[in-house]
Every structure is written in structure tokens, then in C-alpha cells.
Amino acid sequence: MDHDVAPALAALLGRVNKLPTLPSVALRVLELGEDPYAGIGEITEVVANDPVLSAKLLKAANSPLYAMRRQVDNLRQAISVLGFNAALTLALSFSLAPESDAGPLDKLAYWRRSLLAAVGARVIAEQAHINEASKCFVGALLQDIGMLVLEKAHTESYADMLVACDSHEALVLAERQAFGFDHAVVGAALLENWRLPECAWRAVAGSHDLTLSSKAAQPSGIACCVYLSGLLSDRWIHSDRVDTLDERFADQAHVVLGLDQAACEAVIAHMDEVLPHYAGLFEVELVLNEDRASYLIDEAREVLVLRNLRTLQEASEYKQRTEMLESRNRQLEARAYIDPLTGLLNRARLNQVLEQEFHAAIAGGWPLSLGFVDLDHFKRINDTYGHQIGDQVLITVSRVLQAQVRQADIAARYGGEEFVLVFPGTEEIKAFDLLERLRRTVAAEIHRADGADIVVTTSLGLATFSGNLADSEFGTPEELIRAADRALYAAKREGRNRTVIYRRAED
């Protein structure tokens, strides 16, 4: 920061009695975002303390942006659908949404521009192949937060300034002339005081004046996306200047990120597709140009784009998960927790994870389903074709399990030819459908040995804990496993190759 500016800025912050404070939920969300060991369980626990935020994330998981075939009906399941990074970003966005309190600043217009910029930063990052789209979203969302400080510190003069300026760019110039700095500098200082990640407040600091002059001051990819997002958002705010604003955005995008004209047009088209869904998600009207509205009516195109969005998001999340696992020294973890033959979790790790999910279900009040899987007549395969073929069968079945279960579910080898599947946040009927699909898929696999075709079937038992200790017979994870095991043996008694749901009468 400029040494001449720092004292004036410090004085400004010191004069404001009630600075905007980061909500406690948002602060904890940001801490989780910086923790490489944090996962879905941790963010679920934090968000569960805020009922309004929980409801909004449930709404997000059921929105067309994720195109789920089944309704998501609990928070644990919602965050599993959204993915860790998307849930973090949305949780922070909702937490920071400004209230419509008194003051000269139009809070609705402020939030609209912030959200337009945040969505734009994410789209630009994806187009430029910058693998930090979530951080770009957050940085762009926060880039104008300094306006709230200036409004509180200079209420009357800032009100006159807001009325006199017909554009965001004009407001920035007026702020610099009046105060010696603009709201981006104020916002960066505020975020630094809040101890937000350096990449966030530096991106905010450069959101109106990106330095490209020296290698030492080269901006990060996040800062570039945040800077461009402000230019991009203006085209939806000032619909009478679309052509001029498009030209300016394309020029700056080429200078800053090397994007060509086709890439810039793809960014704008992509924004047209997703803005209606973000508008519904955040319950705020986002201005769209009339000449582009017809594109949004084509439902087939919309569905295709949404599915492509989901695919891109899943690919990004997969890469981030992979990098996270590598940072935790994956080889050591694998030796401790992974079954060497099948690649699934081993029994020791299963016991740990199940204990965590059981207590999370109690805390959150959501269901936890467990499936016990056993290969039918597996001993006959070993005796007839040898243990090497038996191992190949186990490996193939394990791959089917991994392919069929969802990202948030847990698959483990319990021992021998027995497997356990854990479905957090999943009620009994949905878990039963998943197990039945798995049973049919395993039976459709053809294994070959000595010129013969081997068909393997499975018997499955299912038990579900409601999440409420008061109305459940399961008081521990071990009792849940035993119940699923009993249902499994009931399936074998009834003829094998079927799924049986545990009922108390079977005891």
C-alpha cells in the first residue's frame, strides 16, 4: 500500500464506529476453505447452526444448476451434491448478502453488481483454465465491500457522490479525488484486518486498477479474473452501452489473460445461460439484455449447458480432491487405510468413518443407511478355478462398487468376499434402490476362466438409522452393522441374489 495513503486509510477505519463485521458462520467457512484437511462433514456441522443458510443450500442443491433426478431433502445430502468447494462458496455468498438497511447506498444494486461480478469471475476462470474458480468467485463478490465502509464514514458526502456518478468507473474516480483512495483499497484493508487469505484481499485491492508494469507486481490469476469481472458485470447493468462495454471487456481480457474474441464471446454466452439460475438461487433480479433473452427460452439448450456445467464442476472438484490427497502423503495413508487387493477402504478405516458418520447423523438429524454385501457361493469359485481367479472376481466387483456409489458414499472391504457400503444422509428407500442397482450390475458382469463364463451374484442386507436415538433401536454403529448383517443372512436364507431390509422382527 502507498505510504501516503496508509495514514488516511487508517484514520478512516478508525472513525467508523460500526464497521461491517464478517458473520461468524462466514468466518468459519473461510477457515475451512484454507484447511486442506477439512471435508464435507466439517462444513455441514458449521452450516447446520444457521437454519436460514441451511435452507438456502438445500434450495441450491435442488436447483436446475445441479439437475438432480431425486429431491435432496437434508443438509448432509445437499452438501454432498454441491461438493465441498461449491458449498463453501455458496455459504460465504449467502452469509455476506447485505441487508436492506438505511443509508444512501442502494443495497439491492450493490448486491446485484457483486453477484454479477462473482458469477462472471467464475465463468472467466473456467474459460481461462484457472483452477481456482471458487476463490475467484469469492474475491469478485467482495470487491466492492469498501463501499459499505465509505458509506458509514462519510454518509452525506458519499450520498452526493453516488447521485452525481452515473457509472461505477466514475464513482471510483470521484472517490480517489475526494479521499485519495477508492473503495477497492478500503475493502482490501478491511479484508486484511479480517485475516482473509492474502489472495482474496490482494485481488480486491487491484479490482479497479490492475498493475501489469513489472514482473514483481504481476497479478495472480485470481486478481485478473476479479478485475475483469467488474468490467463484465457492467454490461448487464448498463444495457444501453453493451457494444462499448463488450469491446472494452474483450480488449482487457486479451491484455490480462490472453483471451481471444471467441473466448470472450463464449464467456458472455455462458453468463447468459447461468444468470437466470443464479438469480433464482440468490433471490435477486439480475438484469439481462432483451436481445439475448430468446436464448434462455430454448429448454433443450439450457439442459445441455447445465449438464456441461456440472461436468466441468465435477472435473474441477476431482482435480482438487486429488491434489489434497497428495498433500496428505497419500502413500502412507493408503498403507494404513486401504485394502491392498481391492483398493477400497479396509475394515479399520471403515470403523473410524462409520463412527464419525453415525455421530454426524445424530447431530444433524439425518438418516444413515448401511448395506452389507456378500458374494454368493464364492468358495465354489475359489475351489473350482483357483484363488487367482477369485481375486480377479473380487477386484472386478470392487470396481463396480466404486463406480456405482456416489461421491459422498463410502465403500469398504469388510473381509473375504464381504463388503460394506455407507450412505450418509440417505433414507431407506433410496438406499434400497442403490443396492438393487448395484446387485443387478454385478450380476451382469461376465467373468471368464478356463474358457468358462462365471456369473457372480450377491446377497445384500440393508439397515437404516433415522438419526434420532429416541426412536431408533440402534444406539451405536456396531448395532447398525449387526442389523445389516442379519438382513444379509436373511437374503441368503430366502434364496440369495436379493436385497433384504432389516426389520426388528428378524431378531
UniProtKB/TrEMBL annotation:
<dbReference type="InterPro" id="IPR013976">
    <property type="entry name" value="HDOD"/>
</dbReference>
<dbReference type="Pfam" id="PF08668">
    <property type="entry name" value="HDOD"/>
</dbReference>
<dbReference type="GO" id="GO:0005886">
    <property type="term" value="C:plasma membrane"/>
</dbReference>
<dbReference type="InterPro" id="IPR043128">
    <property type="entry name" value="Rev_trsase/Diguanyl_cyclase"/>
</dbReference>
<feature type="domain" description="HDOD">
    <location>
        <begin position="19"/>
        <end position="210"/>
    </location>
</feature>
<feature type="domain" description="GGDEF">
    <location>
        <begin position="366"/>
        <end position="504"/>
    </location>
</feature>
<dbReference type="InterPro" id="IPR000160">
    <property type="entry name" value="GGDEF_dom"/>
</dbReference>
<dbReference type="GO" id="GO:0043709">
    <property type="term" value="P:cell adhesion involved in single-species biofilm formation"/>
</dbReference>
<dbReference type="Pfam" id="PF00990">
    <property type="entry name" value="GGDEF"/>
</dbReference>
<protein>
    <recommendedName>
        <fullName>diguanylate cyclase</fullName>
        <ecNumber>2.7.7.65</ecNumber>
    </recommendedName>
</protein>
<dbReference type="InterPro" id="IPR029787">
    <property type="entry name" value="Nucleotide_cyclase"/>
</dbReference>
<dbReference type="InterPro" id="IPR050469">
    <property type="entry name" value="Diguanylate_Cyclase"/>
</dbReference>
<dbReference type="GO" id="GO:1902201">
    <property type="term" value="P:negative regulation of bacterial-type flagellum-dependent cell motility"/>
</dbReference>
<dbReference type="GO" id="GO:0052621">
    <property type="term" value="F:diguanylate cyclase activity"/>
</dbReference>
